[in-house]
Amino acid sequence: MSRSTPCSGTSRKRRPTWNPTSSPRSAAPSTSATERTFALPSPPPYRDVSLPVGDRVADLLGRMTLDEKAAQLTAPTAPAVDVHEPPSTGWGGVVAALASVEASPREIAAAVNELQRKHVEDTRLGIPVLVAEEALVGLKIHGATVFPDAIAQAATWDPELIERMGTAIGIQMARTGARQALSPLADTTRDPRWGRVEETYGEEPYLVGSMATAFVRGLQEADAETPLVATVKHFLGYSASAGGRNTESASIGPRELREVHSVPFEMVIRDGRARGIMPAYVDIDGVPVTGSREYLTDLLHGELGFHGLVMSDLGAVNQLYTKHGTAHGDAAASAQAVQAGVHLDLVPRLTTHHLIEAVESGLLPVEDLDRAVSTVLRTKFELGLFERPYVELDAVPETLDPAETRALSRTIAEQSVVLLRNEPVDGTPLLPLDPDTRTIAVIGPNADRLLGQLGNYSYPVLESMAKRFALAADPTARADEAAEFAGNTGPDQARLMVESVPVVTFLDGIRARARDATVRYERGCPIQDEDRSGIPAAVEAAKSADVAVVVVGDQGGINAFGTVGEGLDSATCELPGVQRELVEAVLATGTPTVVVLSHGRPYSLKWMADSVPAIVTSWFGGEEAGSATAAVLFGDVNPGGRLPISFLDFAGSAPLPYWRAAQTPPYIEGRAGATFPFGHGLSYTDFEYRDMEIKQPEVPTDGAVELSFTVVNVGERAGDEVVQVYGQDVTGRTVRPRRKLVAFRRLSLEAGEGARITATVPASLFALWDPREGWLVEPGKIKFFIGGSSAQVRLRTSVTLTGDVHRPGRERPLTSSVSAVPVDPDVETVTRSAASFRAAGPLSGDNTVLEWLEHPIGGELLRGLLQGADEETLAPAFGMPLTQMAMYSGGRFPAETVDRLVAEVHAGMPAPEGGPAR
User: Fold this and answer.
1) Do residues 690 and 675 lie in contact, with contact meaning Cβ atoms separated by under 8 Å?
2) What is the DSSP letter of 403?
3) Where are the domains of the chain?
4) How many CB atoms lie within 10 A of CB 571?
5) Among 37-41, 198-202, 792-796, 838-842, the range of highest mean pLDDT
6) What is the pTM of this model?
7) Coil, helix or strand for 240?
8) What is the rounded average pLDDT for all residues in the chain?
9) According to the UniProt record, where is the region Disordered (predicted)?
């Protein structure tokens, strides 16, 4: 087959072609110059916007040569390829074309217009190119707003806020010419040692799916006139790699694959209508996802209903040959990926010839090639690129970091700050700081370091790294600059090499907020290097201060120049370098100390939780992290962030999801638990939960449970509570998680204000995956736990799912709805059902501990006696009679207490039907 011959299906006949400057057909000889003058070419059908997209795709596909088809499946990346000089066939997509232009927004847009012009006017068929950029923490181009990292976004527990961020990013994309975002991640984190935790929305599939869906919805619908593609990654199991090591194999069974890892992708596909997916680098049980028809066609397309664009991760197709060894060469790797379901190959070097070789050698059938090309073309038609390939330069804003997006970045940063610990100093919680504080020592390697508060996929970090790699390969580079890279890739030698947007450091934020105080700064130590020479000066600064704020943590990077990020995994999850020594030295001065964590992965902080009075995490808070954290420290903002991932006692217990943390046997070194559990976060006020009510105690397996309860701010200042509803399917044909998030709502309440919360939870959220039968909802008991974290349970109840096993299929509901209505906190909002109490019956000391816990009156009494002990801590005693548990309590629970509890239950029970009141 000639590579210049148009091909479609198995046909190899030459078809008519069309060039924007010539007739699509060989016209019959004209008889006069006049006729030739007025013989205008008619546009081909694929240019006819009135035709269905499928017809336009088929027409264009039939006109394409093999070279042109192969070009449409290629997406080179700018740091490695000069994407602004395309070949005569053009490319399907390009990545980082905007990031490579350090200029004003209008100049960036003009460069994209010129790139489009070369595709639309200088190629035979005029197919526009799909311009893609990273956008996880803001559009990754010069001068665009840098938002907090994804793990910080998740800590807000506010999908509506993240949808606003997605909209802001999408508008910037539309104005500058980017049409595809390589964001967000829908990976469910399984191991805190994995360096890419910072790019995820945490460890809980429901939270991950909710946040990713909000981002996608906001971005793709940002501009009604300019559709965009959000590319959700990394499908599938990337975050479950062995040992938390990036791109290692993942061992995942079919149930965990569906019930944990697929769920967020299913949510973002069905509820967010995501138009793009990026497969993971990993292999699952020996099958690389990028080359797997089982995962990319049968699961992604067949089960999850995705019909959009699949773009490989950078170099992942080539890895089928070079790493996984499932292909015997580059051409075979290209064929394997296309046949699996990959449409665009994101490449660090041009590989179009591999596709051509695959077709010509018979490795890749033409019909499979055409299927992939058709998807790329259909995406471009649906985006309107053929009609509107160019950006209107007059509509490009003067700045991509205006006041309103900086304000949004600060709001997200403020809402993401999590108060982990706040113990009294001289009888008063250390935070918020006393407004009369006169001297503040600001200490630590991240206190005044821009690289210490920006995510690894932010423009300043990525472009600085690209420049370092370029310098290392440039023989004309200055020796001192090139030496920064050669042989030394530590974070402490790194510096920002691009000026993009103003960044407010923690030192800046504290100085601006505490204008009347003396603020002294000492770095203390580096991020990773074991240099202790600065610790004595930090100790002296702390001794002379009323309070010390020690800012420690990570530095984002990719494979180098960082302590966290892609390719930067940790064996211990300890603070890097000698930062712990710095904290302990400051503590030893006796000066009240606040530790601020600026980081990308959760740490093992049991030592810190046992000694430091106040700890907050800002994660990587972006360009306004310093202002946001200062506002929290001084009480201008009441912290309302909650952990989207647990902080384990020690990393060696990972993977340890929150629903197993309380029931896992300990190691000889101590318990396998969480120092700060999933959902944890303190406030400067207090919240009370009460008046639990279930609409129906029995619900059909195809129905929904409706729970209502009241939350009241009983403190003296306004604050935010994140209401969290967890559920447990008590008995199933497979092992069910002891607790899973099924609903949540961030709630703002003034002091003394109350709200009535109603959560409607579809029974399908408790569906289990059976490899033979698919999704099933079984009848049986469902327990609910409501409170302020996965370990802080304030209310409990249960319902029974009734009827036959329900098979909800692919269209099952995936989300709950939660409403909040203001109520008078002084009025009880629920009338207890006498019938439900009668059904429960009385209790005696011979009833088991579990029977007591599940009783509407006895449960509250027993938990009160045990000071709110969680059910998991009592699990070994579930089958014991209450009298036996009292006997084994060592005198802490005397026998007469059992008699008192029994009497109180009897007194609280309603009268029998027609009988006297008890």
Assistant:
1) no
2) H
3) 411-644, 685-830, 832-918
4) 11
5) 198-202
6) 0.90
7) helix
8) 89
9) 1-51
